[in-house]
Design a protein that fits this description.
An 8-stranded mixed β-sheet has the order 3-4-2-1-5-6-7-8, with helices on both faces. Strands 11-10-9-12-13-14 form a 6-stranded parallel β-sheet, sandwiched between helices. Helix 1 crosses helix 15 and helix 13 packs across helix 14. The radius of gyration is 21 Å and the shape is globular. The protein contains 15 helices and 14 strands. Helix content is 43%, strand content 17%. The N and C termini lie close together (7 Å). The protein is α/β, with parallel strands linked by helices.
Length: 409
């Protein structure tokens, strides 16, 4: 089959949408299908194009058998509202233009988290008379309302109308979790038009390994208990809780514990400034790292923090960080209520806390420091459960079965 995939994000970007799109497309290409991805020059989350790339009208590369076409966009950092929307709109327009000049595929796929990418797929598929699968990783406009990015009621209602129209025009919808499916059902989408393909673990990348002692030494944390957060340091992450927990630890003289914040995003500068103001020596910001460096980071983590702000919207989300941490057999501290917490509990892969509760975060870390054997057992249990039920190879194959069902040929 010829598969044309619209994704705003793609490697070398390391966020969850880029990783999921790459993982699936790579496997489909390996299965003998011709896969083309239309994306941007890599620039997330800072709005600065990565070294080795340029923000051109059109550039082509081949990555692991995937044809990658990068289109021009108005660059903007992953913060603020107006310029980010201009960024999204510019991708939509560039993506449509490039998409309609591609050889007619058997199917098109477009993925959120921003729905202008979905509309690029909708419009291009209509112009080419090709069925479209719409992948939903985020529910708009709820996700942007939850972090306060848009407050104008008129704008919100406009987006809601276009959102429902997009669902109606898609041939079929792929939800990335049961929580998203439930939200789509509440918006009037028929159950028959929705399939669920979860995120999972790529065992070729994330698997148990010895602690990278050299990396711990380089970071100056050789004798520390390391609690890591790995991902976008954005508005939704709610990582102020880390600074508040770190302050509790400093005030109580528990100097054998350190927080490692790995990544970048809209809140990184503010959090670093606050860390310096408070004089917290037990919080380390690494900045953005390559995907290939993530296994080493997780190997030195005695616990992995998965956290989002306390809002009803996030009861339905399923962070990909859970699968990567479990794939490395690391115990998880889950500060995300709802479906994510239920999965961690079912897997026996960690301990759940109330989001934005620094006291509970400190208590759990203390417990894991005092009971390393129990942390080890949690990691092993999470690894066994996640690798048995959420293997990327199997999930990509299931996804491909849905594609074949709706493709032209």
């Amino acid at each position: 089959m010829k598969i044309l995939f619209f994704s705003h994000y793609f490697p070398p970007e390391v966020n969850a949408p880029a990783s999921r799109t790459y993982a699936n497309c790579k496997r489909w290409a390996e299965a003998g299908h011709r896969v083309t991805v239309i994306t941007c020059a890599p620039n997330c989350p800072d709005g600065v194009v990565y070294k080795g790339y340029r923000n051109r009208l059109f550039q082509r590369e081949v990555r692991d058998g995937i044809e990658v076409i990068r289109v021009w966009t108005f660059l903007a950092p992953n913060k603020g509202t107006f310029f980010r929307i201009v960024n999204y709109l510019s991708y939509m327009l560039s993506g449509i233009v490039v998409g309609i000049f591609q050889k007619k595929p058997d199917i098109m796929i477009a993925t959120s988290p921003q729905f202008f990418c979905g509309w690029a797929g909708i419009i291009a598929s209509r112009l080419k008379n090709v069925p479209l699968l719409l992948e939903i990783r985020d529910i708009w406009p709820e996700s942007i309302i939850a972090v306060g990015a848009i407050k104008n009621v008129t704008v919100i209602r406009f987006i809601e109308w276009w959102e429902k129209k997009m669902y109606h025009l898609a041939r079929h919808i792929i939800a990335v979790g049961d929580g998203y499916k439930q939200q789509l059902l509440e918006k009037g989408v028929s159950s028959q038009r929705i399939s669920v393909v979860m995120n999972g673990v790529d065992k070729s990348i994330f698997s148990p390994r010895p602690t990278d002692t050299k990396l711990k030494s380089q970071l100056g944390i050789t004798d520390k208990f390391v609690c890591s957060y790995v991902g976008t340091i954005g508005l939704a992450a709610g990582l102020e809780v880390v600074l508040r927990a770190a302050l509790i630890l400093e005030e109580t003289k528990r100097d054998n514990i350190v927080f490692l914040l790995v990544g970048s995003g809209a809140m990184r500068d503010d959090l670093e400034a606050e860390q310096k103001r408070l004089g917290l020596s037990n919080v380390i910001f690494t900045g953005r790292l390559k995907k290939s460096e993530m296994p080493a980071i997780l190997s030195i983590s005695d616990a992995v923090l998965v956290h989002l702000t306390k809002t009803d919207l996030f009861l339905t989300v399923m962070p990909s960080k859970i699968f990567e941490a479990a794939g490395m057999a690391r115990p998880i501290i889950c500060g995300v209520a709802g479906h994510a917490a239920e999965l961690v509990k079912k897997a026996g892969g960690g301990i759940c806390i109330e989001p934005e509760n620094p006291g509970q975060l400190v208590d759990v870390i203390d417990f894991l420091v005092d009971h390393p054997d129990k942390g080890k057992k949690m990691g092993e249990s999470g690894y066994k459960f996640i690798t048995e039920h959420y293997d990327r190879d199997i999930l990509a194959e299931n996804y491909l079965g849905i594609i074949k069902r709706y493709a032209l040929n």
